[in-house]
Amino acid sequence: QVQLVESGGGLVQAGGSLRLSCVVSGSIFSINFMGWYRQAPGKQRELVAGISSDQSRNYADSVKGRFTISTDNAKNTVYLQMNALKPEDTAVYYCNAVASMWDGLRPRPSDDYWGQGTQVTVSS
User: Fold this and answer.
1) What is the DSSP string of the chain?
2) How high is the pLDDT of residue 99?
């Protein structure tokens, strides 16, 4: 089994900062991609930031210059540093990993794994 456990959400005033963390645990063979998505009420889930195994990063246009994604591969942890937060950043943030698990004999095909979500609320 794979578990993604997020932490770091909360309530912050506009202009403030938060740092989200997500730890991936389980019988991991390889992680190909890790990312943060968010979903605001009444809206579709959207990719906020992602980082691939080659360390290439991509960001939603709305967060470029304000958010930074990083990883600690030794800890299978992905972070999202969010600065200059705006009320429109309010959403539930989900951690995502595209990973291949080890079944004891061989690696399994890559699959999508999700955290339970953490609420980020930015007040004006």
Assistant:
1) -EEEEEE--EEEETT--EEEEEEEEESEEEEEEEEEEEE-TTS--EEEEEEETT--EEE-TTTTTTEEEEEEGGGTEEEEEE-S--GGG-EEEEEEEEEEEB-SSSBPPPEEEE---EEEEEE-
2) 93
